[in-house]
Amino acid sequence: MKTIEEIKSTIKEVILIERLELEDITADDINDQEPLFGDGLGLDSVEALDVVAGLEEEFGVKLQGMTEEEIREHFYSVDTLANFVASKNLVTEK
Amino acid sequence: MRRKDRCVVTGIGIVSSIGNNKEEVLGNMKKGTTGIDRMTQFETDKFMSQIGAELKNYNPNIHFSKTEQEMYDRCAQYAIISAKEAIEDSRLNLEEMKQQRIGLALGTCNGGINSLEEQEDIKQLDQKRTARYPFYQQGDDIAAFFGLNGPVNILNTACAASGNAIGFAYDMITEGYADVMLAGGSDSMSSTVYAGFNVLQALNAEPCSPYSDKFGLSLGEGAAFVILEPLSKALEREAFIYAEVCGYGLSSDSYHETAPDPEGAGIRFAVELALKQSGVDKEQIGYINTHGTGTKANDSAELKGLENFFGEKLFSNILFSSSKAYFGHNLGAAAAIEYVTTLLAIQEGLLPATINFQTAREGCDYQNLITNNMLQASPEYFLCNNSAFGGHNASIVSKNWNKNQTSTTTSKSDKTERVVITGMGMVNGLGHIQGEAFEHMIHFNAPVDECSFSLKEYDQSLYQRRMNRLSQFSIGAADLALKDAHLEVTEKNQQKIGLIYGTSRGTLQSSEKYLNSIFENSPEYASGIYFPDMVLNSTAGKIGKKLRIKGYSSSLSTGGNDGLMSAFYGFEVIRKAIHDDCLVGAGDEHSELSRAIDVAYGLDHSEFSRSEGSSFLTLTSLKQAQDLERKIYAEILGVGTTFEGSHDKSSGIQFQKAIDQALEQAEITADEINFIFYNSDGLPERLKSMKEQLTQKFGDREVLCFNDQMGYGESTSSLNHLYLAAEYIHSDLNILHGAGEVAVSTENILEGGVAQGLVVSSSVNGNHIAMVVGSVR
Amino acid sequence: MLLKNKVAIVTGVTGGLGKAICYRLAEEGACVVGIYASNDQAAQSIESDFKEKGYKGMVFKGSITDRKFISGMMKTVSERCGKIDILVNNAGINDDQFIAQMTNEQWNHVYDTNFLGTYICSTEVLPYMEGQNGGNIVNMVSVTGVLGREAQSNYGASKGSIMGMTRLLARRYAQKGLKINTIAPGMINTTMVNDYVPKNKLENFLRFTSEERLGEPEEVADAVLFLSSDLCGYVSDTVLKVDGGFLR
User: Fold this and answer.
1) In what side-by-side order are the strands of the sheet with C239-242?
2) Does residue A34 form part of some domain?
3) Do chains A and C touch (3 or more CB pairs under 8 A)?
4) Of B75, B329, B579, B582, which is the active-site residue?
């Protein structure tokens, strides 16, 4: 059972930086509330799909069957994404 | 002005999921049968879809001996089978036509990917199977199988590849480079490609229904070929004529790696160029076979582009449909299969329908869309359109031969422009160079294999996160060639600049990453960010996107003379007055996978070290160059291209023929050539043989190869020799040399002030190309 | 060169007899297309050996009982080689058992491969030969088919059926220029005999053979050559025994 902090860390280090090979950036540079797409980190639609695959691989969280709105909502920032993962995994906060 | 032959289709062949020959296929189309069914070739349980359009009961043992099966990937196998049917259909007897120039243009999106996939570990590859993988190998296999000696080219523009191939073949016929052309496409079902479309969430869980309410595409496999001939020859031998290919257009969206321009501007421009080239008016078009994949991104965008071009009223009167519901999306073979089946339908007064259609989706509700049942109709002119990953588009204009022929002339007149080189740039171990390269070569005693160019450092605005090295080198070189030509890309001219790119293997570093993501993890975790780089035209697409070039665009692979072949294609683009400017280039990139391919071809025994990098030339019409007072390096005077059809590659007959063809087109004799620059892969026997043949023919002239200085880049070196030849001519043959073995003459005194040189290159499988360049007379 | 420019299909080429037939026909100038069921290595080595010797030919893998395969393969051969002049139905198996203990499976397996296989190949090739108004079909039977032998009732019956079918086909197609005959080899020096016939039985057979020895595959191949060429002009519906004078 991961804590919300651990989830955020995994998202930043493994899914974003490592998987998407984001250059010249460390986990500390990524603001939790910063938008992931468009302004902010500037990920594009293809990278979004890799994030989806990453969530499945790291957390076992599947996104099939979700509406576009729901996806946009959860994927807004590291915060919202982490919360989404937490709710799926019924994680307890330390 | 000159007259050129009209071009017609005299034979058709096809293998697909709804039939292994044309009768079967048409019969099933009439019944509204789809080939899309539960997948059997590999596991699909973990994917979002479990269906695809596979060939049914394909038994290679019927068509090929075991030894042949070990030589040919399934991609080449499908192509050979359908090409055989087409040849038989045309009733041409190839055996009796050995003196004629019969060539091949193949379009493929995946190449021999099955041969890599089945090894399941790209760190331990075996030579035999790896030698079946390259894209150019598929085309060369077909050409060798049929003993073809004419022009051979492999287009790798993904889902538009075979449309591009049919277009290129049309050029070869109408411009007089070939007497007959086999043109088509082939792609076999691939588990790693399926995994890629899965991770992009592009698959439909049900059989795809283009323009209808369910989103998503269905993948399919198959191959189709047409036989193209000049109309005069076809009439002479009383051949059956399906249709006339009136012309074609190519373009580049330059928008995104996988998604098309949402306004359909790319496909719209391809149609515009196609109609312009054909001399056919938009009012004359009676039917359009659209790309229509069923994905959300494609369908409405495509229709928007078409409606914008034709205008609402006119468009509403043009029948259209997508054949992908019958066959699935056949990727590289899509255009050929869709074109061929449209021709088959038209023979019986019918048009293909978009089957599986329920209710129209938003933006796709048109009365003129043919749904579910084939329609009785007989359009006089029709279009076949296709769009690809990477942004390339192709549109072919054809005339229905069933309709009354009003014109009996077998030729039509066309413009012809002179073509000059106005800009050059290269990026490689020597650094990044704009213009003159000889002086850079002098400073290095030995070739520098690695290219340490960083696009980010050169110009950050051209760079993009995770951009592969091949793209970085190529964008850099293209940018340098533009700068050298003082050609600035603006909104006004972006659709008037062409881009032809040659890469024999693409960015294998990216392919490695993608394949590893599947082999080391599992297919459902395929990397979505590396999948788009699996298609070889992704680099050309990136160049177009970053430099904002949207004109006539193509990407090809020939395996050793790719750069020079691109220059040839660009030369034709300018010559036919399609554009006044065209970038032509090539690129190579080092990787473990590339090294494995070298070993499989014995290229590790080359005398030259392997280089990586990219080179580009800017070609311009003489008229434009003079009007804008651009620097002119040299003029391209003539080109010849042949293929060594037999396995007796030492005979050299075809090599000589290519040279003779180039001299003939340039209207000069061998005596009038001042120097010869030749490109060789450096395998000792071949190197020796090529040098001997050239020395024999050209006696006392300089016969030079620069790969010992620059290293050998499979795609790039051929273009480098054209680059250096142009520079040499520009200097009036006065370039001095310093250290090293480069013996560039310092004592050449020009006769009549005119310098002329010959550049030749052969691919690893005997694809020859010769080009005559000279100072402007 | 008795078979210059002729195209021959030979089935069962990876066995001793089939291989000898291939080489003999190729020596005489024929383009030989060999069919085999499973031994890839042997088949490919014949193909590469042919290439080295400058013979024309290739091998295709498949079962003679698979009509789809036979039909498709013959089409490919016709496309690649232009025509089909000769068919040698040599592929065959045996699965010996005393009749009282023989299972249905054993019976059907041998019968299907030998008789049906020959039947399928012959019927598929006929249209090609008819269209050319000429062609030779040579069916390999066996002395067992002629005389019968213990523990080989299935094998014998299958070969006997082939002889019966040959009779009709020869009659039917003689006027179309087709020569259809059979060859009945005796004890031939191949794996089928060496590995499967018990030593004491073999000695017994040889005692009743005038030649007092096993025949060589090449000697049977010579007979196949005779029946595949123009040399057999007036020979129709014959069972040519190549058995060294075998009495029982």
Assistant:
1) C57-61, C31-36, C7-11, C86-89, C135-140, C178-185, C239-242
2) yes
3) no
4) B329
For residue C88, what are the contacts with CB-CB under 8 A and spacing of at least 6? C8, C9, C10, C11, C21, C25, C137, C138, C140, C224, C228
How many whole angstroms separate alpha carbon A18 and alpha carbon A7? 15
Rounded-to-integer distance, Cα B261 and Cα B350, Å: 32
Backbone angles phi, psi at B698, to 5 degrees: -110, 10
**A53 interfaces chain B, CB cutoff of 8 Å:** yes
Of residues B654 and A57, more confidence is placed in: B654
Active site residue B159: yes
- Residue of chain B nearest C70, judged by CA positions: B62
Q: Does A67 touch chain B (CB under 8 A)?
A: no
With cut-offs at 50, 70 and 90, classify the pLDDT of residue C93.
Answer: confident
In chain C, residues with a C-beta closer than 8 Å to the C-beta of B65 are 47, 58-61
Residues B45-91: tens digit of each pLDDT: 999 999 999 999 999 999 999 999 999 999 999 999 999 999 999 99
Residue A94 lies in a domain: no
User: Given 3.30.70.260, 3.20.20.70, 3.40.50.2300, 3.40.50.720, which CATH number is that of C7-242?
Assistant: 3.40.50.720
B84 contact residues in C (CB cutoff 8 A): 79
Q: Which domain holds residue A45?
A: 4-89
- Position C148 pLDDT exceeds 80: no
In contact, B264 and B303? CB cutoff 8 Å: yes
Kindly provide the ipTM of the predicted complex, given to two decimals: 0.88
Q: Is B329 part of the annotated catalytic residue set?
A: yes
B187 CB contacts (<8 Å, ≥6 apart)?
Answer: B75, B78, B108, B109, B110, B221, B222, B223, B330, B331, B332, B333
Total residue length of chain A? 94
Mutate which: B46, B295, B465, B545, vs A, most A CBs within 10 A: B465
Distance CA C96, CA C198 (A): 12
Domain-wise residue ranges, chain C: 7-242
Of the residues B527, B533, B545, the best mutation for testing chain A's interface (the one with the most A CB atoms within 10 Å of its CB) is B527
Confidence band for B735, pLDDT divided at 50, 70 and 90: low
pLDDT bin (cut points 50, 70, 90) of residue B739 is very low
**Domain of residue A22, CATH code:** 1.10.1200.10
Assess A25–B contact: CB distance below 8 Å, yes or no: no
Pairing of strands B497-502, B553-557: parallel
* Domains in chain A, number: 1
What domains can be seen in chain B, in order of their start residue?
2-414 (3.40.47.10), 419-774 (3.40.47.10)
Give pLDDT tens digits for B361-395. 998 999 999 999 999 999 999 999 999 999 999 99
Out of B199, B465, B466, whose CB is closest to A53? B199
SS3 content of chain C, % helix, strand, coil (to 5): 55, 15, 30
CA distance B180 to B172: 9
**What's the burial of B464, exposed, middle or buried (CB within 10 Å: 0-12/13-18/19+)?**
middle
CB B186 within 8 A of CB B333: yes
Buried b (16+ CB within 10 A) or exposed e, C72-98: bbbebbbeebebbbbbbbbbbbbbbbe
Non-local (6+) Cβ contacts of B45 within 8 A are none
DSSP string, B628-661: TT----EEEEEEEEEE--SS-GGG-HHHHHHHHH
Pairing mode, if any, of strands B180-187 and B152-155?
Answer: unpaired
Tell me, what's the pLDDT at B742? 44
Residues of C within 8 A of B66 (CB-CB) are 40, 43-44, 47, 59, 61
Residues of chain C neighbouring B88 (CB-CB closer than 8 A):
79
Considering only the beta carbons, identify the residue of B57, B62, B67 that sits closest to C76. B62
